[in-house]
Specification:
The chain is mostly beta strands. The protein has four helices and 22 strands. The strands form five sheets. Strands 5, 6, 7, 8, 9, 10, 11 and 12 form an eight-stranded antiparallel sheet that branches. A seven-stranded antiparallel sheet has the order 16-15-14-13-21-20-19. It starts with 7 loop residues before the first strand and ends in a 6-residue tail after the last strand.
Length: 290
Amino acid sequence: MSTDQRRAISIIGFIGSVFSPWYRWSGRRDPDNHCCINVATYGRGGRFTMTDRGRGALRQSADALTVGPSTMRWQNGQLVVEIDERGAPPVPGRVRGTVTVTPPALTGVELPLTADGAHVWRPFAPTAGIEVALEAEGWQWDGHGYFDANFGTRALEEDFSHWTWGRFPTADGATCFYDVERRDGSRLAQGFRFSPDGAAEPMALPPKTGFRRSLWAVRRETRADAGYLPQQVMNLLDAPFYSRSMVRTRIEGQETTGIHEALDLVRFRSPLIKPMLALRVPRRAGWAFD
């Protein structure tokens, strides 16, 4: 998220692209054959890229993940992402450049999202600096960065009905909230304070507070001090089952704007969703390195 809160970028590396209809239609038996580096830029001139690629496009090493023409690598304590992707319909166009995430430290937190550990959230760097240098006018900026990972051995929609997640920068680090509703009716609610040195501590949760639904009417809520109503500052990604937005809330007396996500997995289970997604997630099974 840019310092002036006018632009944002999201980059996700997938091995087994959980939101790809092609991966679902394949039976999800071969994650290496459905890999992707998803890049979405938000603000004037924003683009969305999410190309599902085959196993020939995947390379991994201890320090790097490469999918097709884009790569992520650890280099001198930084996460450097070299991007070369094409925008999905209805806004085509090249997305090319470099994004550098600089965390002051890494955390040791791992949060199982199910009792059997089939899904795990790993917030590597909840507080970091980010430098964006894309080959497009206005897309050179600095701001607040964040780096995490989710691991799973089952499809999300098998275990979850709904979840919300939020990451909010604070004067002394960052605060993250995870609220999960599982299909068996159980729930998980967790909040963490993270300091720049990588220290993490669970926190007493402020009240869960609903705010305006997304344009697709996805239910949204986050944590806020009692009596405070969170509000969307900027819409980022709006899909029938998913919302990503900049949201302003107040935590322990401190007003802050961060990134919020809401995921409706009951909707995602609908077979009607997959053909819609195929329009935004092209399949390029035959891509190979020269």
